[in-house]
């Protein structure tokens, strides 16, 4: 009987997964292979896989296939943060500096690095696009660019944003030297020294540094590892804040992604009070699910959302090509860009515009997502295997980062010092908050190609943690 | 007799110059030609030219030859400014915006443009350097660069600064996305909202905009068209200011160049009070005399001078390659750069480093200086010929800019509106001050190759000015 057949196959595979003969992150045989191996129809094979998917044992990736996604017991989701008001103190600044500068040492397995490895980037094609740009541009790109940014680039960004049903046009977009540069202009435009802004918690440390440098106070909002900020907490602080800055999709470091309903609600709450929402959507294109999550910008009717992005995490960190669609703040953002940097680097902007044409970017992204998703599953499997029982871990549905919560006894700043001696760098949790919290947490990046070397280093890291218990 | 012979030749040439058979900016026959034409010795020919030079009728340019530099009567040096405290008002911001955006219209003769024309740039060689950079760099320049900036570039900048006997090393230099970006980081590092800074008057309008955006108050110091700021005026404001920002060499727009003794004195005065001097030395390499003027940085012993420069006015505006040697503020400047822009564009920095190697830059600068000097003389001649009597004009010994003072009855903001209809853009004097002054002044750039088209436009501009009288 067909029914028995598909269940039998599904049960066999489920056994293999639970016994870790098939490990989390492993690719399953294709449906076609299953058909020929078991002599069954495509329909039966599909039913078997759907059965495994419904049990949460495997997941499908469009145009790629099926992967084991079994979460072994003991890997819970990290705790929701409960932050209060605080300041970026010097010891944390030192910790950030120490971790940051260690990234220059390529002999280290840099689990603290938040960018994809060169092997994952289309470098040859970018070189071609760069040479083409010198041929296309007036003065081969030696001329100052239009302050708002390269028109081709802005057009390509607008077109690419169709992937989340955006109606943005090139006129609404301003190019910048990467996302941090966009956030800097956005904060300088919407806030003044002494103002308070609301952010996620944990939050990307550079956002804390930027806010400090601009003399801004920061309120960290309790943030769920899967759903993002608690909307009730945001509501409470509305009277206090002048702007809100959120990494809405696959937040760094937590990996959280706000559900659509939350995004809609947040935009509504903020726009009613005329509070600008600076949205860092740097990771939105690196989704592991079926389609790109929409950014908050999708729900922006009042023009109060400043949507920011770049190709720094997907194509070329060193090209410094980013952008913002700043709604009603457009003219002010252009002015900030003009007075702080005159214009963007002409030639790299044109090169990225050229690369984005003809669906080339989407092809590249498909591969990148596949790799990163597979990496995230491999990391999860290895951590489950090597780290102490009770370790909690985020379930990112996109991006580059895992957030790991260890036993309360572990101080990850100390763990950093021990691990770096073994040529492993981690990002201690304390870097991602103004509060005295997350001392037992760390961020691990899976942006490098999965190798046995990394597996070994994760095993070693697990051993080092066990020794601290 | 030899003496009579050289005087006779000198007098003949002097007559031709005064009768404008030889016009200001024209190149004189070479010494060799004079020898063969008049059948005289090289010694006699040299004496004749020295005689003319001593009378201020011609000037010599190293490795280029002799040029007519006769200043017809009626062309006086512009007046020294006497500014008070004031704010950048909206109508001036609008004027700046209007002039700035007109620069995108290439059908206009852009006498308001402050950069060299493409024809004066070594574009083919830069393209080669760019391609080479993609071959040399790890990841072809897709990787983030070291935050302090490309090491090769910093080394080349340090070496190039030997031209003013600098002892700077690569470790003391931080690269930036152009000079304005360096000034922005320098001001953000040394001042806080509400602080007062001292600048020249007239002053480059973007400096006024930058100061306003950072919430700084600006004191304009009386500035001599040839010698720069009045040191007595600086002394008086020392107790009020938190930083001083000077364009020490060939100031934009005035063309003034502080004498060495003034530079030394200013550095002494400021460093005694521990007041940082932000030095914009953007034009220092574009000198018309025999050697490069030293910057104030040369006299900096306390590490309080933040020397800023770039290749934006000499090689590639659109590459966004600049730098600062910020003395004791180095770590803070690097931090500012990190949080506002992460790093510079990797590939254009490496390309400029490559171009700077092997004396290529010095060769290019020699040609550029020759062209610009000749242009400045042609402009001066044309203005003497076409503009009303009583017109005053600066005598820049370097840079790209002429400062022209017209009759008090002329409002150059109105002249702008009239001239732009005739496809000529000028930069009205009011753009360069917070005060209600310089309304009868304008800045004209001679960064474009001299053509009869430009001569005609200057004639037309003279006619328009006459009509306003």
Overview of this structure, please?
2 copies of one chain form a homodimer. The first copy, chain A, has 469 residues and is an alpha/beta fold. Chain A has 3 domains: 2-68, Orthogonal Bundle (Arc Repressor Mutant, subunit A), CATH 1.10.10; 90-118 and 366-468, Aspartate Aminotransferase, domain 1 (Alpha-Beta Complex); 123-362, Type I PLP-dependent aspartate aminotransferase-like (Major domain) (Aspartate Aminotransferase, domain 2, 3-Layer(aba) Sandwich), CATH 3.40.640. In chain A, 41% of the residues lie in helices and 13% in strands. In chain A, the strands form 5 sheets. Chain A has a 7-stranded mixed β-sheet with strand order 4-12-11-10-9-5-6, with helices on both faces. Chain A is globular, with a radius of gyration of 23 Å. The relative contact order of chain A is 0.16. The model of chain A has no long low-confidence stretch (mean pLDDT 91). At the A-B interface, helix 5, helix 7, helix 8, helix 11 and helix 12 of A face helix 5, helix 7, helix 8, helix 11 and helix 12 of B.
Q: How would you describe this structure in keywords?
A:
homodimer; 469 residues; alpha/beta; four-stranded antiparallel β-sheet
